[in-house]
Design brief:
Blueprint (H helix, E strand, L loop, with lengths): L5 E2 L6 E2 L5 E9 L30 E4 L1 E2 L11 E3 L1 E3 L2 E3 L2 E5 L2 E6 L6 E7 L2 E8 L4 E6 L3 E7 L6 E7 L4 E3 L5 E7 L2 E9 L2 E2 L3 E5 L4 E3 L2 E3 L1
Length: 215
């Protein structure tokens, strides 16, 4: 699996001065991963609790290497990954470095959010309904998120060192905005699987089309 979020070099991520354009297309997820089964608890006796189903079709499309200058205006952002019906919502979150993510607990019982991923190792501890804790993500990479209490809960946070990425919509379509004219390697990611890089050329003030198939 490839995940790179670095500045462009002379032979990769080539960009020239000019009007920005955009890259658009569609990601076809050929095989959808089944969500993990939840472990029943004492409170489920007779009538199990409702549970949201993670949207595992949502993908992230990004430039493998960003054009130079992409890191000059990297303002800290803010995002939310809720805990609702024993599910992380959204299941996939794409952010830039420096973004702080809140993890509110919207359930009526305790949660304990943690990650052992190299870009961000953390353990927010147990906290009750209505509470929220947060963490700032300063290193690019893929962060797997889990709950120490509910083993079936999991999510992904993709942290980029540049703004040239986009989430797909419910139909698998994406659009990466404000891309300087140039030639780039573009990758589609879904549930831990990355496509082969595809070369895309964005014309001055124009658009480029590129579809992907993953799994």
């Amino acid at each position: 699996m490839s995940f790179v979020a670095t500045a462009g070099r002379a032979s990769e991520g080539r960009a020239s001065a000019g009007r920005p354009g955009f890259i658009r297309g569609r990601v076809n997820v050929r095989r959808v991963a089944a969500p993990m089964d939840r472990r029943p608890g004492v409170a489920d006796f007779g009538m199990p609790r409702d549970r949201d189903i993670p949207d595992v079709r949502r993908s992230v499309v990004y430039l493998e290497s960003a054009p130079r200058g992409a890191f000059e205006t990297n303002d800290a952002g803010h995002a939310v990954m809720d805990q609702r019906n024993e599910t992380f919502v959204p299941h996939v979150l794409a952010i830039t470095t420096g973004t702080s993510v809140d993890f509110p607990n919207s359930d009526k019982f305790y949660h304990n959010v943690f990650s052992l991923s190299k870009p961000a190792r953390f353990d927010l501890g147990r906290y009750a309904a209505g509470r929220s804790r947060s963490i700032r993500f300063d290193s690019p990479g893929i962060v797997r998120v889990f709950c120490d209490i509910h083993s079936h809960m999991n999510a992904f946070i993709l942290v980029f060192g540049h703004p040239f990425f986009a989430m797909t919509d419910t139909d698998g379509r994406y659009r990466i905005e404000n891309v300087p004219p140039g030639t780039y390697s573009v990758i589609a990611w879904n549930e831990g699987t990355s496509s082969e890089p595809k070369t895309v050329t964005v014309p001055d003030g124009g658009s480029a089309e590129q579809d992907f198939a993953v799994r």
